[in-house]
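Ticket #4471: structure export looks truncated?
Reporter: QA, pipeline team
Priority: medium

Steps to reproduce: submit the single chain below to the structure queue and open the exported record.
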Amino acid sequence: MTVPDNPYAALAQEEPEPQVSRFRQVGRTIPLRTRVILLVVGIAGLGLLVNAVAVSSLMREASYTRLDQELETAMSSWARSAESFGGIRQGPPSDFYVAKVFPDGSSIIINDAQSAPDLTATTIGTGPHTVEAVPGSPSSIPWRVMATTSNDVITVVGKSMARETTLLYRLVVVQFVIGVLILVTILISSFYLVKRSLRPLREVEDTAKSIARGDLDRRVPQWPMTTEVGQLANALNVMLEQLQASILSAQEKESQMRRFVGDASHELRTPLTSVKGYSELYHSGATKDADWVLSKIGGEAQRMSVLVEDLLSLTRAEGQQMEKHPVDMLELSLSVASSLRAAWPDRSIGVVNNTGSVPLVEGDPTRLHQVLTNLVNNGLNHGGPEAKVQIDISTEDEAVVVRVSDDGAGMPPEDAQHIFERFYRADTSRSRASGGSGLGLAITKSLVEGHRGTIAVSSDVGIGTVFTIKLPALVD
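Actual output as written to the record:
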């Protein structure tokens, strides 16, 4: 015979699931309203049961006390002279049972009814106590008896408990009927009250279902904050606001990404189409000037390179962490103007400081230098050959304001509204022939917002354009 390594493994695997966990599983499937109603009815039923037991016990004790007093009174009065009735088996009308047992064994029974107490179970000298009816009696109702002895004569006084038994039985029946009526009343009223009390939770459920169906503007009705439902509704509404904001933000970002991919694909397709066209033109023999074809292909490749670099710059501007330090915007503006004067020696680039102190901000000097360079280049490229560019620095409401203005051609309002969008070019001033990718101002806006700042534009045709940047001032 082969003995397994662990003879108790099978027993452990076949161990039945604990009953407690089964009860918990069953309890979780019961609706909250049903559980509350059952709890209320159960507590009320338990209270009624305890009350019925207490009342029955008190009533039983009171009945036994009254009966014992009657037995003691009878024993101390007329029952002692019961032999004066002449030994006959009858006496005055009474519901008492009296028995006299003499030393010679003779006895006298007075008011002998159809039923009698079992004298063999009677104890002498112990006071009133309960005994069963004598075997064979028509009635099995017990008796309350009391026995004493005097001059060797035993006297037994008893009284049937029929009236007390009937009274206690009727009391139990009445209590049962009243208890059932009370429980039915509590059941009906609790069903109505619990249903009414849980109405806010049903509204929360309906709101959740509506939101699940796509109604993101739906909110839970407000209740007083002093109630649990009010606190729950407030917490849910706050959560729904944040959830809706997150969903809308995600949808907006997804939409922007789709537009970005579509625009990037469109922008890259144009030079790629040109490269393919020049290549096919040469291979088909339509032209034998290889240098001309290569120069055209090189120009389109250069345009794609600029576009890809600008795409990378935009991606870095939106997602890369910046190393921020205190930056003097006046010093930075002078540096930008000096660098661009070398690139544009025939153009006027000025810097005006309207602040009474050092205009410090917290930012990445390289990125802020890129912002100002893009804006100044924009004015020089698209303002016209005679346009002058000026950088004005001032402070306003705990912010450093930098205005980059030119007196060039300007742009109409419909162009100014879209100037910061990716790949946007005005028909007259932002054509592909200028070499721009349409991402410069989008990169600029992203960098400014990365510094917790804002950028705006105002322009008039024939007068010029002003870009206004506001950055939080660095307070010492």
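Status: closed, not a bug. The export was complete when the record was re-opened. Leaving a note from the reviewer for reference: Residues 335 and 369 are 8 Å apart (CA to CA).
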